Amino acid sequence: MHLSLLGMPGSGKTTLGRALAQHFNWRFLDLDAEIVARAGQAIPVIFAEHGEAYFRQLEAEALRAVVARPGPLVLATGGGTPCFHDNINVLNANTFTLWLDVPAAVLARRLERGGAARRPLLAAAGPQLAASLAETLAARQRFYSQARLRFAETRVPLAALLPALAQAGFPAGAPV
What we know:
Strand order of the largest sheet: 2-3-1-4-5
Mean pLDDT: 90
Shape: globular
Number of strands: 5
Structural class: alpha/beta
Distance between the termini: 6 Å
Number of helices: 8
Radius of gyration: 15 Å
Helix content: 40-55%
Largest sheet: 5 strands, parallel
């Protein structure tokens, strides 16, 4: 069984993913870290040297390899992961998907503290970061909305999320 977290950059996928993995005593994996390990290059370098299409192909290959692994894990996907190469269907077929739905204005406040500069698709947004995030979120919602569970909170306390997961049919330790 795997639990995958979907959402925009800054939505808390990595932070919550680590907390969930610790709670369930599962492995945690960040898909971006997996891509970096496989490619031997940082994501900004991959984008700069090879472009987004190449990155998305690496991402799809890494995703398929990760979801095929045995044993339970919590997976933090990249913000665009569900939107390319039929990845949302791969995620839904092999994992329990959880969408962390955070408003674009909240994402912008979080990412303005330095997070945007490390993300190739946001680095150039500058003062238009909030508008860029809102536009990207609008384009990605049709993919995110296919997740099995949507959690629309700006802060995601584990105590509130665990009952929502159980109610949505995610009993930890049982097959999805």
